[in-house]
Amino acid sequence: MPGKTDDKIIGKMNNTKTALYRDLLLQAQGIMTGISDPIANAANIAAILWHGLPGLNWAGFYFAKNNDLVLGPFQGKPACVRIPKGKGVCGTAATSAKTVIVTDVHAFSGHIACDVASQAEIVIPLIKDGAVIGVLDLDSPTLARFDTADATGLEAIAQAWVAASDKV
């Protein structure tokens, strides 16, 4: 069931993470072929990640609007609608223009808890023409769920979304 996991699944995933992300990237590129609408592409990417990655309780996008990040397409429970840039994990990634991996969200100063079940988070900035236009955000109910292999795979998927999509 999407959004649910156990240690056995995570252990198996770690052994095949590169192959998994290669497959997810191919799915993402395939579904975006010929489609430049950023919302449609974001909706499909969120669904691909939600169904393709074990151990998630949220996967989606926030888009830059003035000094905020505004909720875009996602999979999971209802989420925060606006996040000020520089606040929380998403706002930090948007301000720094760097991927942020948080192994324990309770240890991250200023974490914004949209879902109390979230224990770990990874946020990838979406950069087009040198500007952060949004973020790709994934949450997990498992501590230390995300690592540098996830960052590498998700950064490739985020770059594919940017390349395929018109600016939001």
**SSE order:** HHHEEEHEEEH
CATH C-level label: Alpha Beta
Strands, count: 6
Measured on Cα atoms, how large is the radius of gyration? Answer: 15 Å
Number of helices: 5
**Count of separate structural domains:** 1
Major sheet strand order: 3-2-1-6-5-4
Secondary structure class reads: alpha+beta
Percent in strands: 25-35%
End-to-end separation in angstroms reads 32 Å
What does this structure look like?
By secondary structure, this protein is α+β, with helices and mostly antiparallel strands. The protein has a single domain, classed as Beta-Lactamase (2-Layer Sandwich). It has 5 helices and 6 strands. Strands 3-2-1-6-5-4 form a 6-stranded antiparallel β-sheet, sandwiched between helices. Helix 2 runs antiparallel to helix 3, helix 2 runs parallel beside helix 5 and helix 3 packs antiparallel against helix 5. The N terminus is likely disordered.
Write the layout of secondary structure elements.
Blueprint: H1 7-15, H2 17-32, H3 38-52, E1 58-65, E2 68-76, E3 82-84, H4 88-96, E4 100-102, E5 120-128, E6 131-140, H5 148-164
Antiparallel strand pairs: 1-2, 1-6, 2-3, 4-5, 5-6
Helix pairs in contact: 2-3, 2-5, 3-5
Short description:
The protein has 5 helices and 6 strands, in the order αααβββαβββα.
Feature tags:
single chain; 39% helix; alpha+beta; 168 residues; six-stranded antiparallel β-sheet; Beta-Lactamase; globular; disordered N terminus
